[in-house]
Specification:
Elements (H helix, E strand, L loop, with lengths): L1 E10 L8 E8 L19 H6 L3 E5 L18 E10 L5
Antiparallel strand pairs: 1-2, 1-4, 3-4
Length: 93
């Protein structure tokens, strides 16, 4: 059976070469279980490094301009990239 692994990387800016500032992982294979904050180091230094390791990019946040007066607000992480890997697993997994 094929199962999906999902990796979300938030980068410092819109460039895939930008450093990772936050991340989250979900593993549909059941092989690994990750909790928010369970590692101090990102799985990849950049989004480009994830691509080079075989992750497929399937969504990037749209680039939207800041509204006047909100340029310095940090209410959310703006540069979000979603990656996936399709993994073959045992039929009984």
């Amino acid at each position: 059976m094929t199962r999906q692994r999902v990796l979300v990387l938030w980068l410092a800016d819109s460039n895939l070469d930008a450093p990772v500032v936050a991340w989250s992982e979900w593993d549909g294979t059941g092989a690994a279980r990750h909790m928010a904050g369970d590692t101090e180091e990102a799985p990849y230094a950049t989004g480009l490094a994830a691509l080079r390791d075989g992750w497929r990019l399937f969504q990037a946040s749209p680039l939207l301009p800041h509204y006047p007066g909100t340029e310095t607000q940090t209410a959310y992480l703006k540069y979000e990239f979603w990656f996936e890997q399709l993994v073959d697993t045992e039929a009984n997994a």
